Amino acid sequence: MKLDVLQPAQIHWRENHTLVSDTFDDVYYSTDGAIAEIDYVFMQHNQLPERFKTAKDFCIAETGFGSGLNFLRAAQLWLENTPAGELHFISFEKYPLEVEILAQVHQAFSDNTTLQTISQALLENYPFRLPGWHTLILIPSRLKVTLWFGDVLQGLPEFETPVDAWFLDGFTPSRNPDMWQASLFTQMARLSHAQTTFATFTANGEVRRGLKAAGFCVQKDVGYGVKREMLFGQLAQQRPFAPKFPWFVRPDFVPSAQTALVVGGGLAGATTAFQLAQLGFEVTVLERHAQVAQEASGNLAGTLHPLITSDWNLRSQWYLKGYQTTQAWLKNWLKNAEIIGKLDGLIQLAATPTAEQRIQDSLRRVGLPNNFATWQNANQLSEQLGQTVNFNGLFFPQGGWVQPSSVVKRCLQHPKITLKTQIEVTDFVWQDTHWQVQTAQGTQFSAPVLIFATASLSNSLNQKLGLPVRPVKGQVTHFHADNIKTPLRFPLTHGGYSVSLDAHTHLSGATFEAPNMDTKLSWEAQAENLSTTQSALPEWINRAPTELSGNIAFRPTSPDHLPMIGPVADADFMKQNYLSQSHTHVVYRYPKQQYYPGLYVNNGHGARGLMSVFLAAELLGDLITQQPLNLPSALYYASHPARFAIRAWRSGQITD
C-alpha cells in the first residue's frame, strides 16, 4: 500500500490560548470548556462511566486525534473506574501535531494530576511523524494507544479489532468533507457489534443519513455550548463478522500448562524465551552448540537503524516498529551496563546512486522528520564522524550498535529459563496435550508450546514447518588497533557496515554470499569487505590486516525479506480448504485457518535481526497468551508464516 507524505498541521494560537487549524479554519477543542465538552459529547453519550465499571477490556476508536484531549479524558475515566483490564484507544490523524504543541495544550490542565500523568506517558512515547501505524504501550496491560498517521479512509479498512465505542471527531463536516464519507460509516459498522455506541459533536444531515444507511440507530440531543444539536446512537443490528483474511486469523489454542520449549539459543530464541518467562512460563531452551550465540548472533556487533524505502511500505513500517521495540528493550540494559553497545547515533551512507535516489525519494514522498533522521552532505558527516567519508547520507540520532551475544546472555539469565546445550532436535510429534521432541542425542523433551527459533534447522524440519528459509553466508572482518587510524565516533552503514567497539576492537562486514555454504574464512571475502569499507571511509584503514580474522554466519532469509513469525498452519487443512480450491471466491466463503496446536516459528530475520527479534518475541507472547496484539493487523499478516503459500494460491499459481 502506498502511503502519502504527511503534511504538518498548520496552526496558530488565539489570544485565549485556543489552538486553531489553519487548514480547516476550526478550533481543536471547545473554548467553552474543553473537558466539559468531551465529558458531555463523548463520555456521557457513549455511557462510558457506567460501562467502564463492568468492563474487562475496552476498545475506543476515534476519527481525528488532534490534541489528544479526548484520549486523555477517556484514559483518566478508565483508570479511575476500572481496577483491571486494558483500554485500547485507536485514533486516526491526517495532520499530526508536533509533540511540543501537544505538551503546550496539555499544560493548560496541569491542575489535573491524573491527566498530567497520562499526558507525560503519551508525550514520552509519542511516535515520529511518519505515515502508517504506531502502537504505544503507555501502561502495560492497562493503557494502549494505536495511532494511524494518514487518511482515515485508507487506514480504517486495514483494521480488524472490534470496537466498543466510536468518537466521531475531526473538524466539522462542512470544512472537512473528505473524511465524512459513506465509506467511513461502512467501516464503522464492519468493526462494530451489537453493543457498540457512537457519539459526535455534529448533527449534520449527511452524517446522520450515512450512519443510518450503514446500520446505526441514530438519535439527536442538545449540543454543547454554541452547538445546537449533536448525534449519538448504537449499532441497530450486529452483522456476522467475517475476517478480512480468514487464512491469517489468530489461533485459539490455550496451552494445558505454562511450559514451553524454544529451539535455538541465538537472538530469536533468547528473546522469545525471555518474553515467555516474563509472562510466567517455565521455558527450556534447546541449543545444538556447546555455547549460545554461535551463529549470526555471534558477531561482535550489529547495527540498529530503520529501513528507509521510497514509499514507506510495509517493510519500512515493520522495521520502524521493530526499531522502536528494540530500543525499549535495550534502554535500561545499556544504562545498567548489562549488555554491550551504544545507542547514541548511526550514520547511513548513500554509497551508490541508487541508494541516494531511494533516500531522496523517501525524503520527498514520506518526509522524514528531523528527530528521526537528518540528511547531511559528506562534509557534514565527515565532521560528525571524525573520519573522511565519500558519500552523503542520513544520521539517525537514536541508532547505534549492540553486541548480540551480550543480549542473548542477558535474556537467558531469567530464573524461569533452563538452557540445554549440545542438543540437536531431529523431529517433533504432537501427543494429546503436548509436543514430544526427539533429539540426535536420544534425549526427549515435551511441552504444550513448541517454538522453533533457529536458522540451523535441517531441510526436512524446514519443510515440515513449511518455511521457505534460505541461508545467506556473510563474512565479517575484524581489525586490530594498529590497522585503524582512529576509532569511529558512530557506527555507519555503507553497503556493508563498520563499527568501533572501543579503541582496540573494530570490524567491517558483511558479505552476501549465496549459495556458498563454506564455513571457512576466505581472503576473497575479506578483500571484498576492505574494498567496500575503503570506498566509503578512504582514510580509516591505515594498514590492511595480514591475517584472516573475522566471523562467518549464515543469515536466515525469506523470499520477501520479512521474518516469519507466528503459528504454523495445518498443512492438510490448508491444502483441502485453500490450495485445492478456487482462489476467486468472495472471502467469507473460506473457513478460518486451522493451526497445529501450540506450534510456532520465529525465523527469517536475515541481516536485520536486531530490528525485529524483540518485536517478534512480543508478538509470539501475545499470540500464545491470547492477548491483544501490540502491532497492527497489517504488520501481523505481513510476517505470518503461511503468507507465501497463500500469496501463491491467491495469485492463481498451483502450490499443492
From TrEMBL:
| Domain of life of the source | Bacteria
One Gene Ontology biological process: tRNA wobble base modification
The yes or no answer to whether the keyword ATP-binding is present is no
What Gene3D superfamilies does this protein's entry cite?
D-Amino Acid Oxidase, subunit A, domain 2, FAD/NAD(P)-binding domain, Vaccinia Virus protein VP39
Region spans: tRNA (mnm(5)s(2)U34)-methyltransferase: 1-236
Residue ranges of domain MnmC-like methyltransferase in the record: 115-234
* Listed InterPro entries: FAD-dep_OxRdtase, FAD/NAD-bd_sf, MnmC-like_methylTransf, SAM-dependent_MTases_sf, tRNA_MAMT_biosynth_bifunc_MnmC, tRNA_MNMC2, tRNA_S-uridine_synth_MnmC_C
Task: Spell out the reaction equation it catalyses.
Answer: 5-aminomethyl-2-thiouridine(34) in tRNA + S-adenosyl-L-methionine = 5-methylaminomethyl-2-thiouridine(34) in tRNA + S-adenosyl-L-homocysteine + H(+)
What biological function has been recorded for the protein in this entry?
Catalyzes the last two steps in the biosynthesis of 5-methylaminomethyl-2-thiouridine (mnm(5)s(2)U) at the wobble position (U34) in tRNA. Catalyzes the FAD-dependent demodification of cmnm(5)s(2)U34 to nm(5)s(2)U34, followed by the transfer of a methyl group from S-adenosyl-L-methionine to nm(5)s(2)U34, to form mnm(5)s(2)U34.
Q: Know the name of this protein?
A: tRNA 5-methylaminomethyl-2-thiouridine biosynthesis bifunctional protein MnmC
Name the species this protein comes from: Thiosulfativibrio zosterae
